[in-house]
Amino acid sequence: MASKNAQNDPAAKAAAGSKAASETVETIKTVAYAILVALVLRTFLFEPFNIPSGSMKPTLLVGDYLFVSKFSYGYSRHSFPFSPPLFSGRILESQPERGDVAVFKKPTDNETDYIKRIIGLPGDRIQVITGVLHINGEPVKRRRIGDFARGEPGPPMVIRYVETLPNGIAHEILEVQGDTGRLDETDVFTVPPGHYFAMGDNRDNSQDSRVLGEVGFIPAENLVGKAQFLFFSTNGAARIWEIWKWPVSIRYGRLFNGID
Question: In 3-state terms, what secondary structure has residue 105?
Answer without folding.
Answer: strand
